[in-house]
From TrEMBL:
It comes from the Eukaryota. GO terms for biological process: lipid metabolic process. InterPro entries: Cyt_P450, Cyt_P450_CS, Cyt_P450_E_grp-I, Cyt_P450_sf. Keywords: Heme, Iron, Membrane, Metal-binding, Monooxygenase, Oxidoreductase, Transmembrane, Transmembrane helix. Residues 31-45 have a biased composition (Polar residues). This is Uncharacterized protein. Belongs to the cytochrome P450 family. Residues 1-68 are annotated as: Disordered.
Amino acid sequence: WRPSPSSGLLSPCSASSSSTTSTSGPSARTQLSRWTGRSWACSQPTAPPRLGHLRPRRQPAQLPPRRPAALGNAALHHRRSGQRSPRLHLQLPQLPQGPRVRPYHGHFRRWYLQRRRRLLAPSACQGAAAYVRASVPSLRIQLQPPQGRMRPAPAASPHRRLTFDTTTTPVLGVDPGCLAVGFPEVPFVRAIDDAMDFLLVRNLLPLSWWKLVRQLGLGYERKMAVAWRDIDRFIGDTIAKRREAVKATGGIEDSADLLSSYIDDDDGDAGSGTVVDVFLRDTTMNLMIAGRDTTGSALTWFFYLLTRNPGVVSKILAELDTIKTTTTTTLDGMVTFDPDELGRLVYLHAALCESLRLYPPVPFEHKGVVAAEALPSGHEVRPGDKILVSLYAMGRMEAVWGMDCREFRPERWIGEDGKPRYVPSYKFASFNAGPRTCLGKDMAFVQLKAVAAAVVRNFEVEAVPGHVVQPKISIVLHMKNGFTARIKRRQVMN
Ligand code: HEM
């Protein structure tokens, strides 16, 4: 399927008609209907899409795609009368709004503090960048084949492991060691993976059904309880250790992990009771879930796109060559870059944005309506309605991105003056827009650039012919069959 040039609606096209640079993958509409079940809203302009037996019982709210600002309407509206749907609260009980922290009266204030404080501080990004830089030699051990031969490797796996380590370290101050030689199974990671899978199962079942199964403690709900117990234990122990450390040193340094900084804030006003610990647990879990898979997914799709667009790789290498003076070469020849210098690279930034546009790690936004209201776009919504905005679809619409919307073309992000082109967040919505914008966007870009630059400069990545790459039905846009690639050390003439 591809968006029709005249209407912006999706129409069928043969897979073989795609050009070498255009992207593959199912249509936005097909993917949306698979993901959303009965209740949905879409960003198509006129007639509701044909969803067959999944057709909703009543007309859903629709957002006209020709005006990306419509997303802004929904996002701002969300501040007044919408929120994450109650069902989503139950599915994602670790989020700060969830029932697990509801008894804590001050949590909204703390949520506000969380937004403003350390996550946005440059020290948080620097901590993440330093960790990524230090991890590059581990990537070599995992990716480099013996005797320089190319070997197939499930590229998504190193990305997810790397981003788990690079998220856990700045958030909890603990290196879980996922990238250690041999890719060991880490129980805490296993528990989070299980919990995320079970959350998706809940999403697919009727509300009453999974609540009953939870009450009876059967099947996956029993496993879910075990997963949460393991997660709680690990984070509880970490909180206790950090609390001791903060007490012993009488304060924290600028470069401290986020958990220590929250403890430092809390001890100043709220003490260290159980409720505060619950808040700390839920807040740090929120950050781990929000940061890990999104960045891992972004990297996997980015390298997949690079394998299909060698011209882009050459341009990234040429740009990396311009910062030779601040690069470091390790004893075994691995080149790493200064994160500050990487932050200045326009083409690398553009290539990452382009990849995030085509493959947004969070493929759809889900809002619940709590009060009847007319959206600024004229659409009336009622309590209980759900608004789903497909970010995946928005990134592939001619009406929004032009005729070449399915092409991977980083140049669209660069102005004629060679500087980054301004693109409003209501158009490029991969990090959401409005009051619930991603808090980790800067940190994500620092991590993405550090990994992308290190891998592109040190390795050649080639897709294994015949391996089918498809998005997987999930809360995060993973690859259904993973991404199997051949990897070898890059020989660069100096
Ligand atoms: C490429 C990487 C990332 C992408 C595409 C991304 C995308 C998003 C999106 C779409 C949302 C809105 C979710 C919703 O409200 O339904 C969000 C929220 C959030 N993200 Fe990210 N994210 C990324 C990385 C990170 C990282 C590294 C962190 C921090 C470690 C982070 C922290 C958060 C937090 C705390 C929220 C909740 C904000 C709020 O509700 O106030 N994200 N992100």
